[in-house]
Amino acid sequence: MKEERDGEKGFTLVELLVAIAIIGVLAAVITPNAFRAVEKSKIARAVADLKAIKGAAMAYYADTGTFPPNDDNYAGGPTGNSYRGIDFLKNQNNVDGWNGPYLEKWPEAQYWAGNHGGTYQWQGVYNYGSTPLDFNNDGKADPCVELNFGGSGFSDDQISKIVLDIDKALDDGDLKTGMFRYRPTNSWPQHTTYYCVGFTN
């Protein structure tokens, strides 16, 4: 004889299907928002990194009267990651007035890092070939940080969105003006952004 338990009732098939449908709807709503929140946090980190480098560069300038030299000046060139931001961390060139370290550590590679991409490189007062990186149109190169996306594995459209989101949070939202510029090109250096930290006298 089957024993019945008082007060116990199981879910019907219809109730289970309704519950599954509700969970599916919630997942469809929550998942994209969760991804957007993660992306926003990554962009916010990049903005914070660039602002930290700017603050450190200006403190270096206040102490020494000059900006740190280009990281490429050291052995290893553009792939010499051990020299990234070295002058902010130690007095590599025995510069008078140096009173650092100006950063606890150089910011780490971002999530879009590739073989050369996603790392911050201090460019200093930089000329690209014979063309100065001039942000205020005075004919002189201005000190800046480079963020290169070459070899990141991201599509052109994905990179364009990332850098535009950074620009909107950091600067004027226009990648051709202001202090944050984008140089989309298939030649080296690929998909490079430059953030100007100040102006030379």
From TrEMBL:
Subcellular localization(s) per the UniProt record = Membrane
Q: Which Pfam families match?
A: N_methyl (PF07963), PilW_C (PF22434)
Q: Mind telling me which residue stretches traverse the membrane in this protein?
A: 12-35
Tell me the keywords, alphabetical order: Membrane, Methylation, Transmembrane, Transmembrane helix
Q: What membrane topology is given?
A: Single-pass membrane protein
One GO BP: protein secretion by the type II secretion system
Cellular component GO terms, alphabetical: membrane; type II protein secretion system complex
Q: Which NCBIfam families match?
A: IV_pilin_GFxxxE (TIGR02532)
Q: What is the protein's name according to its record? A: General secretion pathway protein G
Q: Which organism is it from?
A: Desulforamulus profundi
